[in-house]
Amino acid sequence: MTSATPAKLIAYFGGTFDPIHYGHLRPVTALADEIGVTRITLMPNNVPPHREQPEATAQQRKRMVELAIAEAPLFSVDDRELQRVTPSYTIDTLETLRGEMGDDQPLAFIIGQDSLLTLHTWHRGRDLLNVCHLLVCARPGYRTTLDTPEQQAWLEAHSAEHAAALHAQPHGLIYLAHTPLVTISATDIRQRRQKGEPCDDLVPPAVLHFMDAHDLYR
Predict the structure, then answer these.
(1) Which neighbouring-strand residues pair with 159?
(2) Which end of the chain, N or C, is more open, meaning fewer C-beta atoms within 10 Å of its C-beta?
(3) Per the database record, which ranges form the Cytidyltransferase-like domain (predicted)?
């Protein structure tokens, strides 16, 4: 009798994506190569509780994500958070996903180093490790250590040095990835659009065409 094939690690990447850009796509693609993930699901959120509300509508942001990943088989999109009219708390979504996948499926949520530094302010932020791993992409200009000795000790207690550990258990680890530092932000793109400056090098061509067609961020 042979044992069942272990489930492959599945990763989710949430964000406002207002708009989606290469600063989202390139580091996450590198992350997938680094840790051996073959599926990453992008999850646009509707009402982010920790930041200003999006300028583009939910459906416009979803469409831009779809256009950005149309020729990238690594990615898919999950619009469940766009169905909400209440704030999108990450823990609620990840607990729902865990319930759908069962207890044994390795599951991860991708964040940036900036989000790791503020995770203690998130609604039940630390509870995320009860349902998933955290994959942390490097971000330019942000510290690699947490604010307090207690927070740093928590990080070190859960850190995974090798990516293989992420595939071997369903949740509970934090992996600090060696992803490229990409200095692109949605704020910069919106500002450049308002000034009439080009954004060809910041977003995929199909996304730029969509923004032009719908006169977004002007």
Answers:
(1) 174
(2) N
(3) 12-192
Tens of pLDDT along 179-191? Answer: 999 999 999 999 9
* Residue 212 CB contacts under 8 Å (≥ 6 apart), including other chains: none
127 phi/psi in degrees, rounded to 5: -65, -15
Distance of CA 62 to the CA centre of its chain: 14
> Which residues are CB-neighbours of 23 under 8 A, at least 6 positions away?
182, 183, 184, 185, 186, 202
In which band, very low, low, confident or very high, does the pLDDT at 120 lie, cut at 50, 70 and 90?
Answer: very high
Q: Which residue has the higher pLDDT, 71 or 139?
A: 71
128, 129, 132, 136 alpha-carbon torsion, rounded to 10°: 90
Residues 95/53, Cβ–Cβ less than 8 Å = no
- Taken in order 216, 75, 134, 177, the sign of the CA dihedral is negative
Buried b (16+ CB within 10 A) or exposed e, 42-64: bbbbbbbeeeeebebebebbbbb
- Output the pTM of the full model: 0.93
What CA–CA distance (Å, rounded) separates 86 from 8?
32
- Comparing C-alpha atoms, which of 183, 204, 214 is closest to residue 20? 204
